[in-house]
Design brief:
302 residues, alpha/beta, 2 domains, eight-stranded mixed sheet, Putative oxidoreductase, NAD(P)-bd_dom_sf
């Protein structure tokens, strides 16, 4: 009995040889279903493409110019800036069939960089895993995470199926929502690291980096955030309207050790205003206390 379209195995090709490409190759190979088949790895770094292919049992590998056809799914695991030129290059490669789809994993882009492929009648989409991929990331990086899905209805349906096969939770978005989600991800991930770095700079004289000493506090804050939401998770002097403590912090930021670190002072004032806004919206600050805090945070002489 022939397989239905929903059961057909999808031949997949990966273009790229970086951390995301390696993790995706492992995830496709270790998929919990037989729906996905890794057929090839192609990249500018042909040695690395061969290494990834051999590690994951992919029969084809080489440079991009050596690709003979675009499979059912071609995943572009390359830098954002490389997408437009790569799309132009892929236009000259035959497809495996009318349903062949080229998918980028970029968080920042919608489908505009793939316009040359669309103009040739090739389906395009985006599957962006909301995850970090450090060196050594593997198939487990996809387990249980959310992944945004962007594309026309048939493509979105197929990428939803792929995301689930990889162990992800798919979230269908439009182009505007995708860009907003990526912006949110930068705040939640990249800038969280920047905040940790600022905490270390705020206490330079400790025997250990501040992030080591503050790890239990940071972890419990995240637990409270996920369990209770942003407003309920907010604690500290700003949330309770403790102007004297805020003033003491600002004076400390002007100490000889910290006075030249203008980013630290600016970040404290900006985030203090954000925290005050959260507390005011949650009715934890009176209008008078809120205004007093803002005036203090805005006063560069404080």
């Amino acid at each position: 009995m022939p397989k239905s379209k929903a059961q057909e195995q999808l031949n997949c090709t990966i273009i790229g040889s970086g951390r995301v490409a390696k993790a995706l190759a492992a995830a496709l190979t270790g998929s919990s279903t037989s729906e996905l088949c890794l057929n090839g790895i192609f990249a500018r770094n042909t040695d690395e493409a061969e290494r990834i292919a051999r590690n994951n049992g992919a029969p084809k590998y080489g440079g991009i110019s050596e690709m003979q056809r675009l499979e059912a799914l071609t995943f572009l695991c390359v830098s954002d800036d490389a997408l437009p030129a790569l799309a132009q290059q892929l236009c000259h490669i035959p497809t495996a069939g009318p349903d062949a789809c080229v998918v980028h994993l970029s968080g920042a882009h919608d489908l505009e960089p793939l316009t040359p492929l669309q103009e040739r009648g090739i389906q395009t989409g985006s599957l962006h895993p909301l995850q970090t991929f450090p060196e050594g990331a593997d198939a487990a990086s996809f387990e249980g995470i959310y992944a945004s899905v962007l594309g026309a209805a048939p493509v979105a349906a197929q990428l939803t199926r792929v995301a689930r096969a990889l162990g992800c939770k798919p979230v269908t978005v439009d182009a505007k929502q995708k860009k907003q989600l990526h912006l949110a991800a930068v705040f939640a991930s990249n800038y969280m690291v920047a905040l940790a770095a600022l905490s270390e700079r705020a206490a330079p004289g400790l025997s250990k980096p501040a992030t080591q000493l503050l790890r239990p506090l940071m972890e419990s804050t995240l637990q409270n955030l996920f369990a209770k939401g942003t407003a309920a998770a907010l604690t500290g002097p700003v949330s309770r309207g403790d102007s004297s403590t805020v003033k003491a912090h600002l004076q400390n930021l002007g100490s000889p050790e910290l006075t030249d670190d203008t980013d630290l002072s600016a970040a404290y004032r900006l985030l203090g205003r954000v925290a005050a806004g959260i507390a005011r919206s949650d009715n934890r600050l009176t209008p008078e206390t809120y205004d007093e805090l803002l005036a203090l945070l805005d006063d560069c002489q404080a």
